[in-house]
Design a protein that fits this description.
single chain; Methylamine Dehydrogenase, Chain H; Recoverin, domain 1; 2 domains; five-stranded mixed sheet; four-stranded antiparallel sheet; 7% helix
Length: 472
């Protein structure tokens, strides 16, 4: 066992920080770069290397070689862009097919999933079509239609590259699954159902087992599954997650950090028991059809949440949907540190949790772990810094006096933490639990995307374009 531990604890080579930022939140979704010399202060008049106007889209930029790849939409068009990393010049723009227009939440967009690259080719995913791969010259390599999807928020999950496969997690109101497609041809290699998973947008991360085999860490509603990248077989799983998962799992050696939030009523001590379905039918099923319509809702909470509870969108809640409702309200919002078991198999719910934390949990922003400190930013701007080893809270405070919204995830490099607010303010903090603010840079354009960092530069996508900042 002693000899196998160093191999087991190793993360995929692609999780090591480097000069590229090839997927959502960079190498293995960590949100960390090893670059130095990043500017703390920047804007249109300071440390601007270049700015390139782009159509809107919530996807985050990725960096591969001398290229930047990003997706967007323009009217009815779904677009993939390749830009020169040094100058910001658009090298090519390609239009994806679009078979449909699935509804999306106002906080989402038709171009929210970030692309992924193998260092040369790019792989883009759109909820209104599927996946398309382009070579460095912009020539289409392959296309794979997928969907339609039934995610109540619209699709937001990003594809990832695992060995020679593109892996995609589709969590939705019904028929959730994880699938792997050939990197070179886009053909389905394997597909596994995720029957408990509801609408979510958690992009998976990757680690290796004791034999060096790749494992896919994919949180879902109520549980997290760890799959064999070769076959899609579930290697181990654990229960106890929130009913909606949107954050990226952060892997550090033999520990996985994951956070999930549904509603404020899912905080421990605030949970409200949902009455049995038979009891509700007796009292509120006015038309005696064996279901509960929105007008028959037993309370305001049920009425408010109805569109999320009506999984098959037929205008009424049946026994199955009510059971899911009850489980969703019983789940807990939490940040958890999980100890990865060497050679673990099956249900490990009772053996993997190292510690939990339950306050100010984010729904959208993912964590960043940097120099032993966890940075957890919730959607309204409360930043909690914790000792990653113990879960001890170092500080919890709001980033600014005025309320703001946060869709972007924090990223870290060069002894700094970068946090982009929806309003266009990018905060820069000194690394450490004290949350010491160095700068607040105003770009005056809404930000939904997560910044990319590499080679002494930070790339920030706003609703109007892509900025590159570096020390001058």
């Amino acid at each position: 066992m002693r000899d196998s531990l160093p191999v087991f604890a190793a993360v995929l080579a692609m999780s090591a920080v480097g000069a590229d930022w090839p997927r959502f939140r960079g190498p293995n979704g960590l949100g960390v770069s090893d670059t130095t010399g990043l500017p703390a202060e920047f804007g249109l008049e300071k440390n601007l290397v270049w700015k390139t106007p782009l159509p809107p889209g919530h996807s985050s930029p990725i960096l591969a070689g001398d290229r930047i790849f990003v997706t967007a939409y323009e009217g009815d068009l779904l677009l993939t862009f390749s830009l020169d990393r040094a100058t910001g010049k658009v090298l090519w723009r390609r239009e994806s097919p679009r078979d449909r227009k699935d509804p999306v939440d106002p906080r989402n967009s038709p171009a929210s999933p970030s692309p992924v690259s193998d260092g040369k080719n790019v792989f883009a995913f759109f909820g209104d079509y599927g996946m398309v791969s382009y070579g460095p010259d912009g020539n289409e390599r392959w296309r794979t239609p997928l969907g339609p999807f039934t995610n109540v928020y619209g699709i937001g999950v990003s594809p990832v590259l695992v060995d020679d496969k593109i892996v995609l997690v589709i969590d939705q109101s019904g028929g959730s699954y994880i699938a792997a497609f050939g990197q070179n041809d886009g053909k389905l290699r394997w597909k596994v159902q995720r029957p408990e998973a509801l609408s979510g947008a958690s992009t998976p991360s990757v680690m290796r087992d004791a034999n060096g085999k790749s494992l896919i860490v994919a949180p879902a509603s109520f549980r997290m599954d760890v799959y064999s990248a070769d076959t899609g077989q579930i290697v181990w799983f654990m229960h106890g997650l929130a009913s909606e998962m949107k954050s990226v799992p952060v892997i550090d050696g033999d520990t996985i950090y994951i956070n999930g939030f549904n509603t404020p009523e899912n905080d421990p001590g605030r949970q409200i028991a949902v009455p049995p379905f038979d009891e509700v039918l007796k009292k509120f099923d006015a038309n005696h059809d064996g279901k509960i319509s929105v007008d028959e809702s037993p309370d305001q909470r049920t009425k408010t949440l109805f569109k999320y509870l009506d999984l098959n969108n037929d205008g009424a809640l049946d026994q199955h949907e009510w059971t899911i409702y009850s489980a969703s309200m019983a789940a807990e919002n939490s940040l958890m540190a999980l100890s990865v078991p060497p050679g673990g198999k099956g249900d490990l719910t009772n053996s993997v949790v190292k510690w939990k934390y339950h306050k100010a949990i984010p729904q959208l922003p993912s964590l960043v772990l940097y120099r032993g400190v966890l940075y957890m930013l919730n959607d309204s701007g409360i930043l909690t810094t914790l000792n990653a080893a113990t879960g001890e809270v170092l500080k919890a405070a709001r980033l600014r006096a005025n309320s703001d919204r946060y869709f972007s995830s924090p990223v870290a490099a060069d002894g700094k933490i970068f946090i982009a607010a929806n309003s266009g303010v990018v905060y820069v903090l000194k690394a450490g639990g004290e949350q010491e603010q160095i700068a607040a840079n105003k770009l005056d354009e809404d930000i939904f995307a997560t910044p990319a960092i590499a080679d002494k530069r930070i790339y920030i996508r706003t609703v109007a374009g892509l900025y590159c900042f570096g020390e001058k």
